[in-house]
Amino acid sequence: xxxxxxxxxxxxYDQLIARRVRDSKVYAEVIPYNRITVEKIVERGYKxxxxxxxxxxxxxxxxxxxxxxxxxxxxxxxxxxxxxxxIAYLAGGEVAPAKTGSEYGKTEFAHEMGxxxxxxxxxxxxxxxxxxxxxxxxxxxxxxxxxxxxPVAAFDNDEKKIYGVQFHPEVTHTEHGKLILxxxxxxxxxxxxxxxxxxYAKSCIERYKRDLTGKxxxxxxxxxxxxxxxAVMLHKAIGDDLTCVFVDHGLLRKDEGDIVEETFRNQFKMxxxxxxxxxxxxxxxxxxxxxxxxxxxxxxxxxRVFEEEAKKxxxxxxxxxxxxxxxxxxxxxxxxxxxxxxHNVGGLPDVIEFDDIIEPLRELFKxxxxxxxxxxxxxxxxxxxQPFPGPGLAIRVIGDITEEKLSILRDADAIFREEIAAAGxxxxxxxxxxxxxxxxxxxxxxxxxxxxxxxxLRAVSTEDFMTADWSHIPYEVLGKISSRITGEVKxxxxxxxxxxxxPPATVEWE
Length: 510
Ligand code: XMP
Fold this sequence. Notes:
This protein has helices at 14-23, 38-43, 82-90, 177-188, 197-212, 225-238, 256-267, 278-285, 291-313, 325-330, 348-351, 366-375, 380-383, 403-422, 475-488, and strands spanning 3-8, 27-32, 48-51, 77-80, 94-97, 103-111, 123-130, 132-136, 142-147, 154-157, 162-165, 217-220, 242-248, 272-276, 318-320, 356-358, 431-445, 448-461, 469-470, 492-497. The protein is of the alpha/beta class.
């Protein structure tokens, strides 16, 4: 299988580069610069290498560098941003801080020549984000593009097949970035582009079969897309050597626990342990209304329940986690402030004994995980499930949680979901759910006064859940949902629709 190495120097967009390469049907893997040697790179037979960007300056003492022998290894290289400066530095060129300070954002660049720019208009827009720049290209290299403030926006050495671009071709703001990357992959590296998800699934399954058969492997299954895809892949590789533990915390949507159990136990014939811990969770949450406190309690209880189950299973060799790439960023690549402490299975490694963790989806983006799920034969409805937070309905019942409130919310939420599906809006609306507010209002039913809860409907359209727009659901659909909820769910006297985007609001109310 042809593959390209994305050598990671700490850039923000390293996985995005890999993803763009995979979009061109060439397999890419990301490896940190300090975890691989030139010899290993040569041995593994990569068709090309992409040096990523990074926040450092090549002249800093502890800046990430690489063995200069890589430039003579006979493998095509494309350096992006810091990667481009690093090539210049390693090959004897000169890198300096830009006189005008940082260049950031959309910038016009002009190119003269070069295989990298084949088919790209002479003047076009790229995305810049740098402080240093290449002042002098190394001997044997030539400048191929510039911007108003950056005299070396790109350079190359065709003979050695080494290329550098100061801008970021992987982001969509670079108008012809995709073409520039394709020119590198196909025009320079000679890739054919025959990689697909089916092959990826097959090769992962073969690898896990080879490495893990006979070992005791444990997976925390939530029924969400990520843990389901990870578990099914492992199950295809090692069958009953995999045990899945599904903790039903009683904060799931209507019938969800039974659906998860039915799907994995009966359809997939997986070895699954369902732990019915509803009472325990609801008990621990009694009287708690502060959202972060709720998350903390649920996280702790989850770990405790899992620990107890793991003890019954005995020694575990491998723990499987369904971490996907966006989780990797959210949990601490960079200095982003914690807005909400997303509860996942992050605490598990501390409480059970095991030899190793595997994260089969760590490099994939959500839509890639979904494509992989389809390839593995997971039902469409499960693969396209909207995200559901780990703490479940606990953060959708505002204020303290009771069984009664959960039951009201479940019924209202089920109607909302049914009507969204009936109106064919499932795909255009990325996440939609009901929230039970703690506000009770007066209503009138028949001739009687009612005093019930206010339910809020929340629906958002988003690509990455970092920002989101409220969904413009047609009035008729909203009207039907409202009359069904007030008519069919006892205890609700008012329905409101949330028209706040993120930011300033978050997707969940708590
Ligand atoms: P927010 O509310 O932060 O939500 O705008 C963004 C996405 O994350 C989900 N979410 C969570 N997921 N544990 C999770 O596993 C949590 O505590 C949590 N809080 C929010 C939310 O449903 C949305 O998809």
